[in-house]
Specification:
It is a single chain. By secondary structure, this protein is α/β, with parallel strands linked by helices. Helices cover 38% and strands 16% of the residues.
């Protein structure tokens, strides 16, 4: 995919001016393209995007630093991350305990979702007892 197309999607996204939280995204090219075409792309005052396109040559260090940057932003309420990418930065995800931004692991076109690897889902299951649901 052409990065110019992705940036045009970011630039063409209009802000309503309402005080709300953005969606952050760390994903592969197909995932980011779909979400950016859906209108989630934004730049903050420092011209930092609310997403990271992870390519084959993206280093784990780049993923870690960008995820930490997204976690520190006060204007982001949810961060979506492809599960196969989340596996590479699991230590950061496990250490994140704040409710906002919420970290949600999502599947990608080539990597199906595996609930057993989702640390957030495991943490949520540990908070509830099956008897509480009856």
């Amino acid at each position: 995919i052409n990065e110019a197309v992705l940036w045009e999607a970011v630039v063409s996204t209009q802000s309503t001016g309402a005080k709300s939280h953005l969606i952050g995204l760390v994903g592969d090219e197909d995932t980011c393209t779909a979400f950016l075409l859906g209108g989630i792309g934004e730049l903050n005052d420092k011209r930092e995007p609310n997403f990271l396109v992870v390519k084959k040559d993206t280093t784990i260090g780049d993923i870690e630093s960008n995820l930490k940057r997204l976690l520190a932003r006060k204007d982001i309420g949810i961060i979506l991350i492809n599960q196969h990418i989340a596996n590479d930065v699991r230590h950061i995800i496990e250490a994140h305990t704040a409710p906002i931004p919420a970290l949600l692991e999502i599947p990608s076109k080539e990597h199906p979702y595996d609930p057993s690897k989702d640390s957030i889902l495991r943490r949520a299951k540990g908070m509830f007892n099956i008897d509480d649901m009856r």
